[in-house]
Specification:
Elements: H1 2-10, H2 14-32, H3 35-47, H4 50-64, H5 78-94, H6 126-137, H7 143-169, H8 172-184, H9 186-191, H10 198-218, H11 221-237, H12 246-256, H13 265-285, H14 297-300, H15 308-323, H16 329-337, H17 344-359, H18 361-366, H19 375-390, H20 397-419, H21 429-440, E1 446-450, H22 455-461, E2 464-466, H23 473-478, E3 483-486, H24 492-500, E4 502-506, E5 511-514
Parallel strand pairs: 1-2, 1-3
Antiparallel strand pairs: 3-5, 4-5
Helix pairs in contact: 2-20, 4-7, 4-8, 5-6, 5-22, 6-7, 7-8, 7-10, 7-19, 8-19, 10-11, 10-12, 11-13, 12-17, 16-19, 17-19, 21-22
Length: about 525
């Protein structure tokens, strides 16, 4: 059924779908003009429990994320997903040890140093530990399926927390719409079913926000402790979670005043406890410099921060086009422009996201998955914007509601066309070559899966080794490399190795070479 729906949009019938949408909008215009019908719709909606609608959205949100869930790990950003999945695979092979995360890349590509133990010190492997236990407990599904399901489960929890936050600061309908946007923005559908730690980090950060809101409302230390635990875990996964904290300072300042914050021992202790695990993890990491990838480039490695290209890519291409589908900017703008004191919380959340994009400038510009972190704030503002536009009395109600409905339809339609290519497997040859390596070589073989440093190919081989020839081949052989596999048969390097070493198997898609002169 999912494939049928996709073909409907992608084939020659997309124009019929567009005509249907226009007819639907026209019909809504006519219906909205009938006040009695509008009242009847409002009456029906008032009788439907809000939690039933939320549950329905969560179920549908789960279903739409199942599309392509069994696909090989060779879709959009497969290089980053492969690194994450690789840590879990090594845990399955060698046993779980949270203090020594390892993966399959031995090369100097990530850190500039030989990494013959395959250390992978990026995020604390909370995601990988959960991934590991799911596979061990329910081995029916593959590593890739469980990795995606784990992110999907995280997204569903995030949507529920967004509903709670929206209900607290907007209204119950504002919370529902906010959760709806988080669940169904096409960009977020894809990036909350990937094998990456970001969806789980977002969930933990949102849980920390909600726990702290509960603490502010009730003054119960238990909620403060919950906020500490959730934020500490979020920071361990990704330090970017710190950019979710500006709203917390706002809530505290509103309750006790800015001048009294330093006198609150309970809050100061909470802040200290939050960052201690992160600091300890970072200190521990320094013992394994070969396993720490280059990270300084993420800040402003190419000096793009606040230059015209920075604004174009982040606010023109990513947020406006890729996420909001151009038209979503209308309700988003209303959510910002209509000021209400109860929603100042959102302004501080947006401030945190602006700081995040400004500080982590180069990474945000280069990689779209970095914007996964900003989707909750966008969803909440969109939820507020929908409520404001629907209830707007300054302009013609019929026109405003019609524009709102059309804007939302275009948000999803344009957004879908932006991300539909993300699901495609553009290089199936690396999967075929990976299966060949798995079939032809010993399980403990060390290989080179030449793919310009991209570890997605190496991951498909289920072997450890190098994703690129980064130095003379004889030196790599001395370091234990035994096989070479390539999907680029015309590359001079591949041709050289085919002539010099033993070709085990060659097809029109790939070649597997044993790096030995013994024929």
């Amino acid at each position: 059924m999912n494939q049928l729906a996709l073909k409907l949009f992608l084939t020659k019938y997309y124009d019929l779908v567009f005509v249907f949408i226009l007819l639907l909008i026209f019909s809504i215009f006519l219906f909205l003009n009938k006040s009695s019908l509008t009242n009847r719709i409002n009456l029906i909606l008032s009788k439907i429990p809000i939690k039933f609608l939320l549950f329905t959205f969560l179920v549908i949100g789960f279903i739409v994320r199942l599309y392509g869930i069994t696909n090989p790990l060779a879709d959009w950003h497969s290089f980053r997903q492969s690194d994450t999945a690789s840590v879990t695979r090594v845990y399955l092979e060698d046993g779980l040890n949270l203090l020594y995360p390892r993966y399959h890349d031995y090369s100097t590509t990530q850190s500039g140093m030989f990494n013959l133990q395959g250390f992978r010190f990026v995020e604390f492997p909370i995601y990988n530990a959960a991934h590991f236990f799911l596979i061990r407990l329910f081995p029916t599904y593959s590593l890739e399926v469980w990795g995606r399901l784990l992110s999907i489960f995280s997204a569903l929890v995030s949507a529920y927390i967004i509903f709670l936050i929206g209900r607290r600061f907007i209204s119950k309908w504002g919370g529902l719409f906010s959760a709806f946007f988080y669940l169904f923005i096409p960009f977020n559908i894809y990036f909350t079913r990937v094998i990456l730690p970001e969806p789980m980090m977002v969930t933990l950060a949102l849980l920390a926000l909600w726990s702290f809101i509960q603490f502010i409302d009730s003054d119960k230390t238990l909620y403060l402790l919950g906020a500490v635990i959730f934020m500490a875990l979020a920071l361990l996964i990704k330090p970017y979670a710190i950019f979710y904290t500006p709203p917390l300072f706002y809530l505290v300042s509103q309750k006790i005043g800015i001048k009294k914050i330093l006198g609150q021992k309970r809050l100061l202790a909470a802040g200290l406890l939050t960052i201690v695990p992160f600091v300890l993890w970072r200190i521990w990491m320094q013992n394994f410099p070969e396993g720490i990838p280059f990270w300084q480039w993420t800040l402003n490695g190419d000096n793009i921060r606040f230059k015209p290209a920075f604004w174009y890519w982040l606010f023109g291409e990513r947020i406006t086009k890729l996420i909001l589908g151009y038209w979503g900017l209308i309700p988003f703008a209303f959510g910002i422009m209509v000021y209400k004191k109860t929603r100042v919380f959102f302004y501080f959340l947006l401030l945190g996201m602006l700081l995040y994009m400004g500080v982590i400038a180069t990474a945000n510009v280069r990689h779209d998955y970095y914007q996964t972190i900003v989707i909750p704030s966008i969803s909440l503002v969109l939820g507020a914007g929908v409520i404001e536009m629907w209830n707007l009395k300054v302009f013609n109600k019929l026109a405003v509601r019609g524009i709102l409905i059309f804007s939302l339809l275009m948000l999803f339609l344009v957004g879908f066309f932006q991300v539909k290519e993300f699901y495609k497997i553009n290089h199936p040859e690396i999967i075929a070559a990976g299966d060949a390596v798995d079939r032809l070589t010993p399980k403990d073989a060390v290989i080179i899966a030449a793919y310009n440093g991209d570890t997605a190919f190496l991951y498909q081989t289920r072997r450890k080794g190098w994703p690129v020839v980064d130095r003379p081949i004889n030196e790599l052989i001395e370091r234990g490399v035994q096989y070479y596999v390539s999907v680029n048969l015309d590359h001079p390097q591949t041709r050289e190795f085919m002539n010099e070493f033993i070709v085990i198997e060659k097809t029109e898609k790939y070649v597997v070479i044993k790096l030995s002169n013994d024929r």
